Amino acid sequence: MHDIEFIQDLAIIMAIAGLVTVLFHRFKQPVVLGYILAGVIIGPHTPPFALIQDEETVQILAELGVVFLLFSLGLEFSLRKLARVGMTAVIAAIAEIVLMVWLGYEIGRFFGWRPMDSIFLGAILAISSTTIIVKALDDLKLKKEHFAQVIFGVLIVEDMLAIGIIAVLSSMAVSGEVDAGLAFGTFGMLALFMIVSMVVGILVVPRLLAYVARFHSAEMLLITVLGLLFGFCLLVVKLDYSLALGAFLIGAIMAEAKELKEIERLIEPLRDMFSAVFFVTIGLLLDPKVMLEYALPIAIVSVAVVLGKFVSCGFGAFISGQSGRDSIRIGMGLSQIGEFSFIIASLGLTLGVTSKFLYPIAVAVSAITTLTTPYLIRLADPLSAMAARSAPAPVARMAEAYSRWLGSIRPQGERALIAKMIRRIILHVMVNLSLVTAIFLGAAYAMRHVDFLMHLPMDLDSSTTLVWACALLLSLPFLIAAYRKLKALSLMLAEMSAGVDASYNEGARRVIAEVIPALSIVVLMVIVSALSSSILPPTGSMIVVLVGIAVVAAATWRWLVRLHARLQAALMDNLGGPNKPK
C-alpha cells in the first residue's frame, strides 16, 4: 500500500508541475515559480483537501533534488573563469554578503524576531540564485557579455562562501551562540578540506572518468558519475559536513574532466526531475495564510534584497575597476535570492532553531525577486544611461579620476610578470602546506578512530612513532616542494633588490637569498611540530625518526622532486579540462 501511495504522490507532483510549468513557459515566466506554485496547489494548506499522502518520502526525493542541483552548480564551476574575473568577483561577493547579512539581521530585529531568526534571515538574503540568473541571461542572449562573465565569477565565489555559511550556521545552531573563534576555525577547516579535495580529486577523478569513457558506454559513465557523487557525499557527511558541500565539490572536480559535456548531458534529466520535486516541496511548505500574515515583512525584505544587492554588488564591482555601466548591470543581475536561500531556510527548520514563518517568507521573497530579475537586467542599460546624463559634474570627474588612478597602480610589463610569478609561487606553497596539514590531521584522526592501529601488536608509544613516521614520510615530497618554492621566491626577491651602491646591492642579495631559505626551514619545522602535537612520539624515538627521514630525503631528493613535478604536471594537465586548447 505504501508503494501505491508513493506512485500516486509522484504522479500528482509531476502532472501538476508539468501543467503549471507549461503555462509559465507559455507566458515567458520563470519555470521555477511554476514548480513552487504547483507545490502550493497540491499542498496541505490549499483546500479542499491535501493531495499528497506520504510527505516524508517526498522530502527524501527533495534531498536528492538538492544533491543534483548543487552537483550541477559544481559542474558549472571553473577555476579558469574565476581567475579571469579575479578580484572583482571576490570584492563584489564579500561586499554583498556582508551588507545583506547585516541588513537581514537588522530587519529581523526591527520586527522583534529572535536573534537566531534574524541571523538566518541575513544568511538567506546573502546568496543570489545561480540557476535563475543563468536562465535569465540565457533567455536574454547576454551570457557572452563581459558583465555576465563577472556575474558568473561572483556566483562562483558566493557558492563557495555559502557552503561556509551553512557550516557556520550548523555549528552555531549546536552551540547556541556566535563564537568568532569557532567561526574562523570552521572556515579554516572548510578551506583546508576544499583545497585538499580539489587537488586530490582533480588528480584522480578526471583520469578515472577518461578511462571509463574509453568504453564508449553512456550507461557505464553515468553509473560511475553517480557512484562518485554519492560516495563523496557519504564521505563528506561522515566528516560532519553537509550533503550540499559534497555535491558541490565533486561537481567542481568533475568540471575539469574532458567528458564534462557528456556528463552534463547524462545528468540533466535526473537534475531536472529531482530539482523539480525539490521546488515543488518548497511550495508544499508554503502557507498562504502565513504569507498574508507576514505581508509587510515580505514586502520590506523584497525591497531590501533588490536595493541592497544592487548597491553592494554594483559598488564592489566599481571599486574593483569595472565601468559604471557594467557595475550597474552586475548589481541589477544579482538582485534576487534562490536555491541556497531555500537550503539555508530548510537548515534552520531541520535543526529546530528558526521559527516556522521564516521559510515561507524566504520562498515568497524568492518568488518576487525571481519575477523581477529579467526586468531588472533589461532596466540596467537605461538606468546607466540616465545616471551618466544626470550625474553631477564633480561626481563624474571623481569617478573618472578613480578609474585612471586604479589603472595607474596596476603592475605593467615586467612588474606585472614578476607579480604573477610571486602569486603563483605563494599559491603553490599554500597548496603544498595544505596537503601536509591534511596528512598529519588524517594521521591524528586515524590514531583515535581506526581500530587496526589501536590493536597493533606493539605498545602505544611504538604505534604513535610508526604513524608519525609514516605521516612525515608521506609529507616529504610536499615539504621539499614548499622549501624549493620558497627558495625560488628568495632568489626572485634578491634579484629585485637592486640598489644604487653595487656593493650594498650584492650584500642585500646575498642576505635575502640565504635568510629566506633558512627561515623557511624553521617555519616548516614549526608547522610540522604544531600539526604533530597530538601524535608526537617520545623524544628518543622522535630523534631516530628525524635522522632516518633526513637520510631518506638526502638519498632520494631528486626522485622526490621528480615525483612532485609529475604530480604537478598531471594536476595542470587535468585543469585544462574540456576547454583545453588542442
Can you give a write-up of this model?
With 582 residues, the chain is an all-alpha fold. Helix content is 83%, strand content 0%. The N and C termini lie far apart (57 Å). The relative contact order is 0.10.
Please outline what is shown here:
Helix content is 83%, strand content 0%.
List keywords for this structure.
0% strand; 582 residues; mainly alpha; 23 helices
Topology of this protein?
Blueprint: H1 2-26, H2 31-42, H3 55-75, H4 79-85, H5 87-110, H6 115-126, H7 130-139, H8 146-175, H9 180-213, H10 218-238, H11 243-254, H12 260-284, H13 288-293, H14 295-319, H15 324-333, H16 339-351, H17 358-390, H18 393-409, H19 413-449, H20 451-454, H21 460-496, H22 502-531, H23 539-575
Helix pairs in contact: 1-2, 2-12, 3-11, 3-12, 4-8, 5-6, 5-8, 5-14, 6-8, 6-16, 7-17, 8-9, 8-15, 8-16, 9-11, 9-19, 9-23, 10-11, 10-12, 14-15, 14-17, 15-17, 16-17, 19-21, 21-22, 21-23
Classification by helices and strands? mainly alpha
Q: Compute the CA-based radius of gyration.
A: 27 Å
Helix content: over 70%
- What is the arithmetic mean of pLDDT? 80
How would a textbook summarize the main sheet? none
Order of helices and strands: HHHHHHHHHHHHHHHHHHHHHHH
Give the termini separation.
57 Å
Extract low-pLDDT stretches: none
Shape: globular
| Total count of strands | 0
Oligomer category:
single chain
